[in-house]
Amino acid sequence: MNGGLQYHVTSTGDRLAYHYTPGRAPGVMFCGGFRSDMTGSKATTLESYCRGRGQAFLRFDYHAHGQTGGDFLEGSIGRWTQNALELFDHVMQGPAILVGSSMGGWIALNMALQRREYVKGILGIAAAPDFTERLMWAGMTPAQQRDLMRDGVIYVPSLYGDPYPITKLLIEDGRQHLLLDSPIPLTCPVRLVQGMKDPDVPWTYAHDIAEALESRDVQTMLIKEGDHRLSTPEDLHVLTFTLEKLLDAVS
Fold this sequence. Notes:
By secondary structure, this protein is of the alpha/beta class. Helices cover about 35% and strands about 25% of the residues. The chain has one domain: Rossmann fold (3-Layer(aba) Sandwich), CATH 3.40.50.1820. It is built from eight helices and ten strands. The protein starts with a strand and ends with a helix. The mean pLDDT is about 95.
């Protein structure tokens, strides 16, 4: 495990692509967003920072994302959470901080609830728990909702490329993992960074997450000009600085 591209086959047969940089604990695991991959600037910038610090770092692609194969129409929050958990157990094997971008913030919270003894902190970047219900389903017209339930999939426009599919599986599975309608029983430190010009995840989402968390050590940072990607040099500096302070706090 030296940082090069590697693969891990999960119990369900997903062949997950990942990069792991060995180092000291707590390691850092980056969970990407919906339809994103592990080669983005946030993941690679934080990886470079951790390598320079001597901290272990793991980035990966979920089922049907990036360099991991699979049919995207078969993806779901539950499946992607299980991907992340199995890779966490296989590679990290010890205490870690989870960094979750957008959907990855939901995945990170799900993971922390199942690996509380190992997850020492969470950094959410435009974290979007419950987005399948609060943003996707709630944002559909009644006609789109009917089409989705009837056909099993609809395609919606994207600001970042071709239209993308929303499946009945994604919506119904997402309802089995909703977090924000009740207290989230996590007590580890959590840092939430959110852009106020994010067109995908309202900046008030960070407040909703902070309110739901039982942890007393939750801090939110709003970036006034920040968009959803939070990938400008200034944004990346904020993310690196926030991760640094979180690592210092839990190490």
